[in-house]
Design goal:
By secondary structure, the protein is an alpha/beta fold. Helix content is 32%, strand content 23%. It has eleven helices and 13 strands. Bound molecules: coenzyme A.
Length: 335
């Protein structure tokens, strides 16, 4: 068995900044409500004509990660692409990235686990690298939320939270024992699938059916979120899965150098921080700038924290996520 490590990180966010005040011009909301409930001050939205898409942003993040790993596309054996907002209904973003980056016929896998997508994708990469099947796996999380949000007052409970962006990591084979990705822990609970979901278009809600049922509305095309139910489940599952990861490695909260929680809501991150008695320096949050970028949030935050010198060799880094499905997971990494 090999070990696996993260050898390169990168992220990309669109230039277009959308502040809370900007949102209050198109829907009945305000800066105070959004900041108080979520901590978000602004987010990035793709602008029509700026050339971005979920896959294109993924490529931009991936190029940076590859360069930092001192690798080229020829070195990549496998692409794992996590998103809930693919360019097309099918095929997924992985094959589009493979094409745009002029890669050989390497396999490309799409992960559909929403806010937990990146942790699931890292776990997939980790298993393939540890078993020796692949040497370098390109893991991408990318989201174009803005294209699919209800930007009217009707959608304000959801739309103010989400933003666009992409992050990428290269997972590479290593032989250094006791370092790199130590373990990953994944869970799901489909009983709550509808509590945070987008139902149509899908095989249960084909377009003609949606139009027939909602002649004047387009609700099934927009995400639905039972905010308070999601919040209550998130704080419990975040804590459980971080504890599970720590225990699996005979570690405790006192060993954590950096926790990178999925940027769901600053209040959720703060709740988790308090539970594990971590200082502000031990938790990295950037939801204030980017909103919730779902599968992209952890790789963007991880990259920023690493760029800022907040993650050093030997540090214990914990990634944790919770989201639609419900799905949740953690990754315990000795940097
Ligand atoms: C979404 C969330 C911020 C809403 O906060 P909340 O305190 O639960 O607020 P509620 O949904 O109960 O709404 C309270 C009021 O604010 C209103 N409201 C909702 N969105 C609003 C907005 N953007 N601006 C202003 N008012 C808003 C509601 O209509 C409601 O008004 P009412 O009391 O007159 O009916 C919160 O539930 C949350 O963060 N949940 C977790 C979401 C999450 O993390 N999702 C990602 C998971 S990966």
């Amino acid at each position: 068995m090999y070990t696996s490590k993260i050898s390169g990180l990168g992220y990309y966010v669109p230039e277009n900044v959308v502040t809370n005040d900007d949102l209050s011009k198109v829907m009945d909301t305000n800066d105070a409500w959004i900041q108080e409930r979520t901590g978000i001050k602004e987010r990035r939205h793709i602008k029509k004509g700026d050339g971005n898409s979920t896959s294109i942003m993924g490529v931009k993040a991936a190029e940076i990660a590859l360069e930092r790993a001192n690798l080229t596309t020829d070195d990549i054996d496998f692409i794992v692409f996590a998103t809930l907002s693919p360019d097309m209904y099918f095929p997924g973003g992985g094959v589009r990235v493979q094409d745009m980056m002029n890669m050989s016929t390497v396999p490309a896998l799409d992960v559909r686990n929403q806010c937990s997508g990146f942790v699931y994708a890292i776990s997939v990469a980790d298993q393939f690298v540890k078993t020796g099947m692949y040497k370098n796996v390109l893991v991408i999380g990318s989201e174009n939320h803005s294209g699919g949000l209800d930007m009217t007052t009707r959608g304000r409970g959801v739309s103010v939270i989400f933003g666009d962006g992409a992050g990428a990591a290269v997972v590479t084979r290593s032989e250094e024992k006791g370092s790199g990705i130590l373990s990953t822990h994944l869970h799901s609970e489909g009983a709550h699938a509808k509590e945070l979901s987008l139902e149509g278009p899908s095989t249960e809600h084909w377009v003609p059916e949606i139009i027939a049922e909602n002649p004047q509305e387009d609700i099934p095309y927009y995400p639905y979120m039972n905010g308070q139910f999601v919040f209550k489940n998130a704080v419990v599952r975040f804590s459980e899965v971080i504890n599970e990861g720590l225990q699996a490695n005979n570690l405790s909260a006192a060993d954590i150098d950096m926790l990178i929680p999925h940027q769901a809501n600053l209040r959720i991150s703060q709740f988790v921080q308090k539970q594990f008695q971590l200082s502000d320096d031990q938790v990295y949050n950037n939801i204030q700038k980017y909103g919730n970028t779902t599968a992209a949030s952890i790789p963007i935050a991880l990259t920023e924290a690493w760029e800022a010198g907040k993650i050093k060799k030997g540090d214990l880094v914990v990634l944790a996520a919770f989201g639609s499905g419900f799905t949740w997971g953690s990754a315990i990494i000795r940097w």
